[in-house]
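FW: tagging you since you asked about this chain on Friday. Here's the raw sequence from the shared folder, copied in full. Didn't touch anything.
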Amino acid sequence: MKYQFLSQPLVAGLYEPEGIYLSTPFDAAAPVLQFFGQHPDHYAQYRYNGVPLKGHVGVDFGLEPGSHLFAVDHGRVIEISFETGGFERYVKLEHRWGESLYALVGEIAVETGQRVKRNEFIARSGRTSQGLPPHLHFGVRISPFNRFDGWGGFTDPLPFLNPSHIILPEAGDDARPTIPPHVMAIERPGVRRP
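HL: got it, structure written out here
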């Protein structure tokens, strides 16, 4: 498979209609363990706002526990919480273009309401209690987003990220990311999903 965006020059607005170019949320090269939209049959059992998911709602990057995580753009911390059985500890940032979500994190270095700059240290990656390889679950919502769209409002973050620190499977390889689909929290009445 050829990834066209790897060879495209980063010219604002030329390839990405929103003109959104984000820095990577980590500082060293990291492999993609699970792509956005993968495993639709598995994720269809989970819901956002009562709507079954159409697939994986972010990208999982393989990171060693304790790796530094950074804000992908200027913004404000709008939520720090823990989702049992799902995203576990997570940080959500609000940006001029939407939201970014960093899930399965360990130590958190920011506070709710705090303004952050692009590339500012916000947390360290953690371990998952699900027995999966250590990884960061990263997602973005581009405004205006619709939490009833079968993706929980999330969109594929890869086209918006600088590919210089992202390790993708080699073009033409049959090898896909190796992480199995993971458990997500079951939606409960009165509990808002991240």
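FW: DSSP finds one helix and 13 strands in the chain.
HL: agreed, and The CA atoms of residues 109 and 130 lie 24 Å apart.
FW: great, closing this out.
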